[in-house]
Amino acid sequence: MTSNLQSARKTETIFRTENLNIYYGSFLAVRDVSIEIPKNQITAFIGPSGCGKSTVLRCFNRLNDLIKSFHIDGKIFYHSADLYAEDIDPVEVRRQIGMVFQKPNPFPKTIYDNIAFGPRLLGFKGDMDELVERSLKQAALWDDVKDKLKALGTDLSGGQQQRLCIARAVAVQPDVILMDEPCSALDPISTLKVEDLLQELKENYTIVIVTHNMQQASRSADRTAFFNVVANEKGQRTGYIEEYDRTEVIFQAPTKKTTQDYVSGRFG
Amino acid sequence: MSSPEFVSSPAPNMKRSSSSPRTLFSTIMTGVAFACAALALIPLVAVLSYVLVNGISRLSPTVFVDLPSAPGLPGGGFGNALIGTIATVAIAAAISIPFGVMASIFLSEFYRDTNLAEAINFLTNVLSGVPSIVVGAFAYAVVVLSTGKFSAVAGGIALAVLMLPTIVRTATEALEAVPRDYRQAAIGLGATRIQTTLQIVLPAAIPSIITGVMLAVARAAGETAPVLFTASFNRFWNSGASLDPINLNPVTYLTQGIWEPTATMSRLVFDFATAPYKNQQELAWVGSLVLVALVLVTSVASRWIVRKR
Q: In terms of DSSP H, where are the helices of chain A?
């Protein structure tokens, strides 16, 4: 009950990082990230290349675990759980936190099997046809593919493939969807479709999106984090968060001059 | 009609000149390359046509089902050797394919870029360089001496050792060629490593793996040295083996037949080609033809399977 009372006044956070430092071996890739990501909102990460946006994003579903030299210090909390605690199984984490990648990466299977893959892993016992249809509808792809569910997912157009990947991600009914530059390989019309989709998805999901496209961030996101990067004397580049606030603040009244310069297109 | 705003200037000389040194050199080199390609084809064409010409006259349905006749007598065939080759290669495949594919999954999916994987890769390459006669000697020492007799199983084990490096190498390459995106997508959906491997990576790599396996099978079927003193030879049917449905007994064959000395096509060709009798020499030619056809069919079939998918 108390949590309900609190959420009436406060926004519930999904992720909270505390002094997060990310290393590859001894190289500090991102330093001192302390942000909170609210539930059922779209949070965008923007910033110049190499500033660690994707690196931070991939910490949220522990995908960086696949890189051997990767390690962090500081903390990442998902709800109230410490994501990097010893007893956390990264496989379970990824079942809660879905991901859509930069390059559309459907499996070389049928459209149907692409969607059904995740639920089958989880031992889904219900009506698979219904789940596939619902997922494709949520990803605004149903009308395009309803007559060819047995066609290969890899034969779709780029924009359709990316929506298929979004449908695949929502099919496991995750809590959060992470998107790593989901539109960078898409044409403007497909990009708009995905952006419309984001607005619908945020009713049910929390979305964190990395984007190079500032218009996309300003159109879609509720909150925006601006990442920047500094190089040390050895030429190693370390990313950090320059400013994190509601999107309209970042784009219209940023407190930092570098943010102002970046969002107005003066560098980056 | 060009619009008045645009004018064109005179073009530089771009005409082809057949006498310029550059063109001449190019023409000559094209000719040389063509001649070399033709030369390289000569052995292939020569071997195939020689085998075909010598083998075809004696080719008849009976050679596939009959036993070799006694030295000096006419007729006969190599039905037992045909079954023997299929059996030894099948035993070899049953051993080497699971081991080889599992090893390549280990190398490419679980221990890629580790020192252990490098070491295993290196040793696999060493193994593929071991002369086949040495592999035969190894199987002789390990299997024939310990079981006390020549057998299709001993021959199969020798061939399995020979096939293993090919299978491991081609399967590892096939698995490593599967895009990283697929793995990330599966892992991102909460698949474990083994689920990702078995449900996404392996199916994507299967066509290339089949090609590698078929190449290994085709090569093993034609090997002589490893079966010389492992499967050895048998002028008669092994227990339970026959191409006559009445006498065929698969259970007896699998329990007893494969543990007896077994004739193989390559060993039969080796023995009969050097025999002093005309009938046996002819059979050796037909055997060669059948062996070549077997290998050819296997590789064509593998390509066909791969393309169909």
A: 2-9, 53-60, 90-96, 111-121, 128-138, 142-145, 158-171, 188-201, 214-220, 247-252, 257-263
